[in-house]
Amino acid sequence: KAGVTQTPRYLIKTRGQQVTLSCSPISGHRSVSWYQQTPGQGLQFLFEYFSETQRNKGNFPGRFSGRQFSNSRSEMNVSTLELGDSALYLCASSTRGTQYFGPGTRLLVL
Amino acid sequence: GIQVEQSPPDLILQEGANSTLRCNFSDSVNNLQWFHQNPWGQLINLFYIPSGTKQNGRLSATTVATERYSLLYISSSQTTDSGVYFCAVALNTGTASKLTFGTGTRLQVTL
Asked: Residue B39 pLDDT > 90, yes or no?
């Protein structure tokens, strides 16, 4: 099976802009989770979607949002970008408790 | 929230050496995973091990859930083992996909 894919892999934006990241899970996986990784805060859980419904949410401001489509593909959106949003954004799909991560999207906010 | 501590934070080994990485967690969990993050940022799942012992080639892991710790053993280390090793857990509250990560152990294997 193909692994988790994320697009784009790299992105440069300026403060105040918004960005949409995409994640395609492993075929058959219905749960998709998003994480943010920064040098200062490490890996932090953003949210999880299952069957198009947000099932869990981390402690991030409302500027961070997501959705899941009927084919389990997921998108996350960050509005009004801040410098501190520069990070590696990782998506994971899971089955029976095991999470499989995609290669990530590196976002740089200038 | 749950606390996850990993030790040591940094480790330098010569190729062929063995090592043990430790993960302590502060609450009961129903999900514990070990990951290896390579230099390109990719997180590779090594073990799903909420309890017991598992082995995969030169790697093995043991989780003692009642004592709230897990160990990752790397034997006969190779330079390709370099990277950051993360332990991640989820609580027994139906949030198995909401992983809390430790701060990682950065491993460097030298020739």
From this structure: no
